[in-house]
Amino acid sequence: MKLNNAAAAVALAAAVLSTPAIASDKSELLHDANRTVDNLKHDAAFAQAARMIDGARAVYIVPKLVKGGFIFGAEGGDGVLLVRHGDSWSMPTFYGMGSASFGLQIGLEQAELVFIINSGQALRGIEKGNVKLGAGAGLTVVNLSSGAEGATTTHGGDIVVWTSGSGAYAGLTFNGSVIKADTDENAIPATGPEAEELRHNLSTVR
Q1: Which of 3, 32, 68, 99 could bond 108 through an S-S bridge, CB–CB 3.0 to 4.6 Å?
Q2: Residue 39 belongs to what H/E stretch?
């Protein structure tokens, strides 16, 4: 029974990642990612998390992670990865995120996330195109839920995650989540004002 459930979970995660992008248009996704950075900058509860970006190797921004389903649920969303190069950030590249889970999950919820990537191991795993988060992958993921007491003193972790979500997202975990490169979107490099605006906005996070 456990094997069947595990197989179903993997299949669902794959389905989430293979569905059309939540924000399929690059401009829209970059615009939404820019708004997420603005929200992080103005979230007083995460002043320390914002400052951590200063020393991060990269950030992965998911403007719309959707969680839904009844009894059997899934999370999924599209995001952009920007890598630090000295005092500047790379042009964004596109990655999807999906996971599957079991439990009593009623209704549909949405959150925006910023993954602050601190270790070379985590960045290499993502850049290879398909990384699975959790203890089994050898990556430490620290989740900072909006309004969590003491969040500004939390340090460490290969990846630190800021989320604006509420409700079920207050205890959101990422074990089993998969981050996978969007080869179609990355076939043509991101350019234009939206990409430049996102790079500039990220460079002003303090």
Answers
A1: 68
A2: helix 26-41
